[in-house]
Amino acid sequence: MIAEVIINSTAKKLNKTFDYHIPKELEDYIVIGSKVLVPFANFKAPEEAYVVRIKEKSDFKVKDIIKIEDNLTDKQIELAEWMAKKYFCNVSDCIKLMLAPGTKNKKRENRISYKKINAIYPKKGIEEIEIDIETGNIKTDKQKKVLRFVINNPGCMVSEIEMFTDCTRGVVNTLIKKGYLEIIEKKIERNPLIGKNIEKSKKLKLTDEQQIAYNKIEKAIDTYKQFLLFGVTGSGKTEIYLQLIEKVLKNKKSAIMLVPEISLTPQIINRFIARFGKEEIAVLHSKLSIGERYDEWNRIKEGKAKIVIGARSAIFAPVQNLGIIIIDEEHDSSYKSEMLPKYQAKEIAKKIAQNENCPLVLGSATPEITTYYKSEIGEIERLELTKRANKSELPKVEIIDLKQELANGNHSMLSRELYNSIEENIKKKEQTILFLNRRGFSTFIMCRECGYTVKCKNCNISLTYHKYENKLKCHYCGYEESIAKTCPECGSNKIRYFGTGTQKLEQEIQKQFKGIKTIRMDIDTVSKKNSHEKILETFKEENIDILIGTQMVVKGHHFPNVTLVGAIAADSSLNIDDYRANERTFQTLTQVAGRAGRGEKAGKVIIQTYNPDNFSIQCSQKQDYNEFYKTEKALREQLKYPPFCDIIVMNFNGTSQDKITKLANRVYKYLNERKELEEFKILRPMPSPIDKIQNKYRWRIIIKGNINEEANETLNICLKKIYKMNQKDIRVSIDINPNNMI
Ligand code: ADP
Ligand code: ZN
Ligand code: ZN
What we know:
Layout: E1 2-7, E2 17-21, E3 34-38, E4 47-55, E5 67-71, H1 74-86, H2 91-98, H3 108-115, E6 116-122, H4 126-134, H5 141-152, H6 158-165, H7 169-177, E7 181-187, H8 208-219, E8 225-231, H9 237-250, E9 254-258, H10 266-276, E10 281-284, H11 290-301, E11 307-310, E12 322-327, H12 345-356, E13 359-364, H13 369-376, E14 381-385, E15 396-401, H14 402-407, H15 416-428, E16 431-435, E17 444-447, E18 464-466, E19 471-473, E20 480-482, E21 495-498, H16 502-512, E22 518-521, H17 531-541, E23 546-549, E24 562-567, H18 581-593, E25 604-609, H19 615-622, H20 625-639, E26 646-654, H21 657-672, E27 681-682, E28 686-693, E29 696-705, H22 709-724, E30 730-736
Parallel strand pairs: 8-13, 8-14, 9-11, 9-12, 10-11, 12-13, 15-25, 16-23, 16-24, 22-23, 24-25
Antiparallel strand pairs: 1-2, 1-4, 3-4, 3-5, 6-7, 17-21, 18-19, 19-20, 26-29, 26-30, 27-29, 28-29
Helix pairs in contact: 1-2, 8-9, 18-19, 19-20
The chain binds adenosine-5'-diphosphate and zinc ion (ZN) (2 copies).
């Protein structure tokens, strides 16, 4: 037998199949989807490859497959081939998403050692240890804590003990010396949910609205169908997800639920653990160590965990017998991958749901315009929840005109109204969230004399000022430099920083409200493992007065004691150069507003803006999605933007501006001559808005039109022709409806 394989390589030239002979002894094991090792070209080490087809004979003289390593299913291979065409990438790039994490690892032996760990077990009997704790043979609290932890989590690692008990390695060593604990090298699964003890929750009696939505989806549970669960924040969407999953499990099937990376907080995971127990659940996200992800992946593959909760890439989890896919906060931009392969998880989910014959549920309070449009034309069935499930009122939203504030002589970041409300909240001992969308609003340095701004040497963009390190940094390439006291251009010493970041806001708040407690959440403060959770937990548990943060604070958290939310500069997302500016503004403000008054106390929201008349700001005040949708849809139809057409961006990247323009113009001419693209509007090659990153020039051709199979094929052929020309110094790639137009 002969296997057609795809070599695991990002080289464009290798995006095709090669034939290999399957040795007799492997015939029973190699299937479509097998990951194998093959000799390739004149390489010394064997290469990894994936079997995509099996056939009787080959026209070539073929070599033997050396070894089999892992298996995918034929469905997964089909999906990978479909993806590669659709998203203009290598099949092997797509296959990699479907393999256990860490398997493309040059040091293969290392990966295996992930599974062999030093596990800590109790050495004496549990009763015996308990007696020793009671009678005072175990003296220190730390030792007691560690022993209790190990009894509850036999087989845990020292690092887990450190993490969950706050005790050091030394305490463990003492207990080993005393003969209470022992180390056993073991193949063990490390469930990241270990250490969580959560009270069971019972399913709630659904409200009428919830029941109607539930019934509709439940009826379709063995068929492919797409639903949009459109419900205001707090309307009980999550409760519906929980009950649908319960139903799916009863049918002996499994479930995938995607949530935005940032809302993968203990709050949401705990709700699922409380309902289903931790054994049933696997969590996949980027903060897990690679070993943890590897283990979660295998628990899913072996059918031990039937509920997968994860960010975008969890859509590729190797679940068996899939019964439902749920995508929460479906409007979130993190579902679109910005790395190769540049896929949209919602499109993958749809394909998988079709393959597996199961429903796909998209949930949101502010659906993406495109999704809502599909529900209008009948491609998706829309189910609405109009009321909050726990009867709490939607908060009052006020708009403050910052131009007016300035005219009245108020130059601070807080309007009078917001200042007074914060003061009142502090007195009432209720909590406040202040939200500052830093994008396009970060601090930069400018000379007041000549207007000089400090830009990155490698990328053509302003450097951002980081106060605590007193440095200027490039957010694209990491370049940093210290701050000049005089302008390098004109020598003036009037060089100042402008704009407002979260750091500056926190400082100003502490100056204005003496002695209050604040906590800040932004990219700088959450880069450590778990610190995102920790910040939110601290805010809740310790009753910190004010949480200050970027976009991160707006996603699905539930804080009953938060009664005031302030958006410091609502316009910052309006001024980005992107057709989705209105949509993003409306979504963000509506989500922000949804954070206030989720408990028994009423909530208040204050939106500060320089554009009080903008319709996305006004609609978010009224929390009126329908009006927003109508206005925005009309705009998009007129200007030809999604959903009325796709934006296809062909990127050219390289060190020589000259070579890029030559190639781009040739491609432009070629595309214009294609009959299959007649209906498409192809724009002239232009430099991208950020025309240089890391010393690479960036040009692009934008194509507008509805992408179909024919056009897709034509573009794939075009790319192949470019790769054949072997332009090593120019990288060409295609992105459909990218998140960023920069
Ligand atoms: P969403 O996911 O739409 O934001 P949640 O499911 O988080 O809404 O529900 C918001 C709050 O309402 C939660 O505290 C939840 O426990 C409560 N809740 C949801 N459904 C019900 C119900 N049927 N009866 C009572 N309370 C409910
Ligand atoms: Zn100057
Ligand atoms: Zn840079």
